[in-house]
Design a protein that fits this description.
444 residues; mainly alpha; three-stranded parallel β-sheet; 18 helices; globular
Amino acid sequence: MILDAIQWFVGLGSTVVLPILIFIFGLLLGTKPGKAFTSALTVGIGFVGVNLVITLLTSSLGPAAQMMVKRFGLNLSVIDVGWPAASAISYGTALGSLAIPIAIIVNVLLLLLGLTKTLDVDVWNMWHAAFIASLTYAVTNSFALGIVATVVYTMMILFFGDVIGPKVTKFYGFPGITFPHGTSAPGFFIAIPFNWLFDRIPWFNKLDASPEAIQKKFGVFGDTTVMGFLIGLIIGVLSGQDFTKVAQLSIETAAVMVILPRMVSLLMEGLIPISEAAQEFVSKKFPGRKLFIGMDSALSVGHPAVMATSLLMVPITIILAVILPGNMTLPFGDLATIPFLVCLMVAVFNGNIIRSIVAGTIYMASILYVTSWVSPLVTSAAKAANFDLSGNSQITALAEGGLWTTFMYIGGVKLIGWGIFAIVGVLTLAGMIYYRNPKKDIEE
């Protein structure tokens, strides 16, 4: 009964679930009902706008990507079904359904103990924990170990939120917000060593490739709207579509570059009063402590540097699938999800598009290899959830199946069994204890 109720609530979708949670959260913080309701409604409207623009991007980019795949003559055995299918597979079992209540309990407990600064209200994206739990079960056939995987993964992603929060505030200008998002957070930690390396490469370390610098150097051709148009034009031409389709794609990508940041601004208009109330509440009840509200990283994908990097990464990803020896993954469903994979990498690089593309290319190569490796387990989990494979013998998903976190957990389970969760759990707990001091917040 409880699991059915949770499934029903999650099934309402993020545009309904999030405003409800924001409203309840606002009331608990002492916000006046009218203000809490207005803020929650504004957040919901903002998410509707963000989702509409992302849907526009997906519907425009999807056909172009398919045409590019056909033009390159890709004949790969593992199909990338995308995050919507991966989330459905993750939540399609009893183990997956338990991920949400387990994650909420873990989050509340860690907050009460002062071990995390992140309150994750992005309930829907707890499917990432369910995904890891489902693959763990596929390897071990142990329901109990799947529960352990959910707990440890939730701890890890909340810790990631603690570490990422200051950078989200500094780069994106979202005070009190963080992104404990399973698709985006791993890229943040990949980008840090790359940024260190880039800083030590002569000439390369002097390149300023932020959208502002590009616009200043190239004039009208560096304008973010024009950049969106040109990138859409390049993708359209590479896809071999007719003039009408190429022209539509060009205008639509330009529109995304303009509209998405405005929708995010609307969403933040609703979030900021709640974030301020949360900080005030915490400062009164728990002096010296800080609180981040965990949100969907969709808030970040409207940044010009993120969109420019992401759109350029689409043809790069397809080319990588062609030339990488041993790759079996056909990138498809998650090509439009690339902004979520790179958004926090861009933040680490402070909006430098060249650094983001270089590191993103290497990161995407690793993702393709991991998705190929993990595809038998994803396929097994899909069958357990009675997911329609639509005739595909092997499936995977770039948005979660190819990440280093997935490789760490599943590779660890295969090598040392439950010990991987003990190791990750202990390291995460140590990190939480280290960063519980406000002075330990990292910004780079």
